[in-house]
From TrEMBL:
Pfam families membership: PCMT
Native source species: Pisolithus microcarpus 441
GO molecular function: protein-L-isoaspartate (D-aspartate) O-methyltransferase activity
Keyword DNA-binding: no
Key words, A-Z: Cytoplasm, Methyltransferase, S-adenosyl-L-methionine, Transferase
Keyword Coiled coil carried by entry: no
Enzyme Commission (EC) number: 2.1.1.77
Cell compartment(s), UniProt: Cytoplasm, Cytosol
BP term (GO), one: methylation
Family: Belongs to the methyltransferase superfamily. L-isoaspartyl/D-aspartyl protein methyltransferase family.
Protein name: protein-L-isoaspartate(D-aspartate) O-methyltransferase
Lineage: Eukaryota, Fungi, Dikarya, Basidiomycota, Agaricomycotina
Amino acid sequence: MAWRCSGRSNNDLIRNMRRQGIITSDRVADAMAKVDRVNYVQRPGDAYQDSPQSIGHGATISAPHMHAHALENLLPYIRPGATVLDVGSGSGYLAAVLHHLVSPAPSPDNPNPPQGKVIGIDHIPELVGWSKHNLEQDGLGAALQDGRIEMIVGDGRQGYIPAGMSSFSASQGKLIPSTAPYDAIHVGAAAPTLPQALIDQLNAPGKMFIPVGIYSQSIWEVEKTAAGHVRKRELMGVMYVPLTDPDRQRNGV
Ligand code: SAH
């Protein structure tokens, strides 16, 4: 079972998730092995527990098995070169794993792999600052510097249109995306309903993994086909921090 995957080290945790069938691919296992969860928690002694843990400001780092489910689910869309949005990026842990998947390091077999981009967005400025510190501690300072990882303060319910990817619509009187930028979108907080802005910002093809619901929540996968058709499917019951306003989150309402 998912909650039984706790380990004594990062590799132990990953091995246990493989044994339980939560991680099924080498790509996910290898990328998770490159990111030591101890760099993204507040209490190092809990780093390899398969549970969510408080990171302050009414937020938690998600449980390792939920990160693994999300990565396995999005895997076909997080190939080298892909552009990914992580909404509610919190500790920065998932942004780090996504970075290793979309921007792999050169190897003798592949000296020049395509490099992608990961954008993390969170509405709590202190968490965004802390996540950048965590990523630096984890050896990802260069990726932050050169823009392969970008951590942004903002309302993730609106998604995020990277510079140069929007144009002014006279009829709507506002900036609208000129392209749908994201091959994959991960949402780490539960939306009351599916945010249309995020569906609009999915590439065709593209896929989103998102918890939805208020009292009773479940994960939905939203897949946009190459032809632009949107298919939605409910996957499993979960319990996430809400996708909300900063004041509501800080006050726990
Ligand atoms: N996935 C992250 C954090 C999960 S907790 C991790 O594992 O570390 C959910 C996160 O969503 C919190 O950091 C919270 O601040 C953020 N959040 C909630 N509502 C938000 C909103 N409207 N816009 C952006 N971030 C939001």
